[in-house]
Write a structure and sequence with these properties.
Elements lengths: L1 H9 L2 H13 L17 H17 L16 H12 L3 E5 L6 E5 L11 E4 L2 H9 L4 H18 L3 H12 L12 H19 L3
Antiparallel strand pairs: 1-2, 2-3
Helix pairs in contact: 3-8, 4-8, 7-8
Length: 203
């Protein structure tokens, strides 16, 4: 008799699979779960899902984060710092004299006695990866960027700091001329701006 009960229970699995799959992946709206974040295994996936859910509140538009950016979201704190470095123009894009292409670099204030211009990458995405996981001379440059961000924060009241970053987050911080593939560039720009908006909630 017990084996008949097991067989009957197993026969229900195909019927239950689709509703449960829709619930766990966010493909159906269930009363009370409208702002539910779908089930994900990795922190980067979880943050990507949260940002997509919050995108209307943060940017007043629905955003779908490109899958290529999910691994970067594993380093969410570094990514938010990178966004602030762009917002404060601590990391800047400029034309390379030889190639004419945009490059992303850190130009230290002269009074700090730091080394000259340090290139982080030829695209915003490459610069971000190098910022989040620096090697060689980029480690020192990254520390200099973080010090400068801290100093800029000190010169502003919390209200001024929050208002400045909110104003930056309303417009592009990754320029159209960046060499990243357009759809990925736009998704990256929106992702950085959402992280900025989230950061300003503390101020």
């Amino acid at each position: 008799m017990l084996h008949l009960v097991k067989m009957e229970a197993l026969s229900c699995v195909p019927t239950m699979r689709v509703p449960y799959e829709r619930l766990l992946t966010g493909r159906v709206a269930v009363h009370g779960t409208e702002r539910r974040v779908p089930l994900h295994l990795f922190p980067g996936e979880q943050l990507a899902a949260q940002l997509e859910v919050e995108s209307m509140e943060l940017l007043n538009e629905e955003v779908k984060i490109p899958p290529e950016l999910v691994s970067l979201l594993e380093r969410d704190r570094d990514l938010e710092r990178f966004a602030r470095a762009l917002a404060f123009d601590v990391l800047i894009s400029s034309r390379d004299r030889d190639t004419g292409k945009l490059v992303w670099a850190y130009l230290p204030p002269h009074e700090h006695g730091e080394p000259g211009k340090v290139h982080f990458g030829t695209t915003a995405l490459e610069a971000c990866r190098n910022f989040c996981n620096p090697t060689g001379d980029l480690r020192q440059a990254r520390e200099a960027v973080l010090r400068e961000l801290a100093e800029k924060h000190k010169t502003l009241s919390d209200q001024e700091y929050g208002e400045l970053l909110r104003s930056k987050a309303r417009g592009r911080i990754v320029p159209d001329g960046d060499n990243t593939e357009p759809a990925l560039r736009d998704g990256f720009d929106r992702c950085l701006r959402m992280l900025l908006q989230r950061h300003t909630n503390n101020y």
